[in-house]
Structure formats: structure tokens, C-alpha cells
Amino acid sequence: MRTRKPLIDKEGEVRELLLEDIKQFRPAREVLSPSLLAKLGITNSQEQSAPIPVAPSEKAQAIPSKQRKSGIPTGNAGEYFAMGELLKRGFDAQLADRNTKDYDLLVGLPEEPKLRKVQVKSVRSQPWYIKVSDFEGSELNRVTIYVLIGSERGTRPVRYFIARNRDVAGQVQRPSGWAKSGFMSIKALEKYENRWDLITSEV
Fold first, then answer.
1. Could you tell me where the DSSP H helices lie in the chain?
2. In terms of DSSP H, where are the helices of 43-162?
């Protein structure tokens, strides 16, 4: 019997998804919790057009090593890391549609009826680059998860910093000539490391 290859390697990095991994994707109703399915309005009778990725089954066929692999952008890896950490901590969490702007995850508590929109920003090494518009107007109430993935060969665990935009708006650094963009340093976010409680706290 073939053993399945984990999605996370021994160094804690998300490996590249292969064609055989994609073939093992399953419908949302088979892998999401009942509380999250209810919030998303998914019933057992509904067919889902977009499957949810899960770990490959043991029946997955081996891919020859000479076959070219597809890469996963850092942003996508960070979103999966964040969603996995949220699910591990007991939250309901769902990736937003790829065409969705301004947020990346829908997150809530199992006992609550609503899901909150959460943005994820991911880098392998800090700082995080941001849009100035994310720290203006109604976006000030948005919660952002800053994911520090580390290098591709790194052995340190992934780090998470969770902050409401209004609380760190004053820490945005904008070099001369940067009208719409800026960056956020790890120093500005240190006190927000692992502040998962901020996701579901009221403004």
C-alpha cells in the first residue's frame, strides 16, 4: 500500500500541489463542519462547483520525479496556513473565492451565526507590503492576519500576528513617493502575535 505524502514537509513548509493531489479534492459538504456548512448555506442536496482541497488519499498514484511541479505563491500558502491554524483552534474558517477583493477568509465561532471577513497578508521575510486604502474608512474595522512563513529551507515555525487595521494604522510606513502603498514592520506587530481573540471580538 502506498503511503500518502503530507501537504506539510518536515520543515513545516507547504509542499507543491501535484496533479494527483488535485484529483483528490472533495466537495465542501464532505469536509466542512456542520456549523460552517449552515453558515455558508450548503445542504447535502446541493452540488458544489468548487471542491475543497484536502490531503491526498492513500490511493493517489505516484508522480514521476521528472514531471514538472506547479508552484504555490507565498500568498496562497499563507492563506492555507492561516485557515489551518484557525480550524485547529476551533474556529469555522473558509477560503474566500479567488475573485473576491479586500478579504481572503470567512471566519466565525461554531456557536455564532455570522462569519467575519478577514484579510491575510503573507511574506517569507518581513516587512509586509500593504495598501494605504486598507487603513482608511470602513476598512479600519477589518482584522488582518499577518503570516510570516519563513524561507523555503527554514526550520522555524510559521508565525501569526493578528491585528485590527485601526489599531496599527499609525504604524504604516510610507517611503517618499509611495502614494498608495506602504509597509508594516514586525516591530509594529509584535504585541499582536497569536491574538486570535481579536478576530471575533467586537469593535
1. 19-23, 28-31, 34-40, 74-88, 165-168, 186-189
2. 74-88
Provide the whole-model pTM: 0.67
Q: Which residue has the cell 471577513?
A: 117
Condensed to tens digits (0 to 9), the pLDDT of residues 39-98 reads: 777 776 554 444 555 444 444 444 444 444 333 578 889 999 999 999 999 999 999 987
Cell 467575519, located at residue:
116
Query: Measuring CA to CA, how many Å separate 148 from each of 66, 154, 202?
Result: 31, 11, 26
The answer to whether 174 and 132 have CB atoms below 8 angstroms apart is yes
Report the percent of the chain where pLDDT is more than 90: 53
Distances (CA, A) of 9 to 61, 78, 89, 157, 171: 19, 15, 21, 12, 35
- Tell me the residue ranges of DSSP E strands in 109-185: 116-123, 128-131, 143-148, 159-164, 181-184
Q: Does domain 74-199 have CATH number 3.40.1350.10?
A: yes
| Bridge pairing between strands 143-148 and 116-123 | parallel
Cell numbers linked to 188: 509594529
pLDDT digits (tens, 9 = 90+) for 110-128: 999 899 999 999 999 999 9
pLDDT digits (tens, 9 = 90+) for 22-56: 667 777 777 777 877 777 777 765 544 445 554 44
| Domain extent listing, the chain | 74-199
